[in-house]
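Changelog note: in this version the structure field was regenerated for every chain. One regenerated record is shown below for reference.
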Amino acid sequence: MGRNPKNSQNHLMLGHAELWFYQNLAGIRVDLSKAGSDQITIKPEIVGDITFAEADYESVVGRISIRWERRGANLN
């Protein structure tokens, strides 16, 4: 299938979904307007019947890694 030169090829196909995975499901939030350790917040949003999430993010302040797992009422 050929490309249509009339349509833009310069866009993020799933950019919003990827942002949601990192910021909401994994809970990694970076706010460089804050000072020091307040720049990074980890606050995952547990939704539906998802039982775990794991993510690594290379931020300007270093690597951020998160893994959570839900077992019944417990979150580890």
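Spot check on this record: The longest strand covers residues 62-71. The chain has one domain: 15-75.
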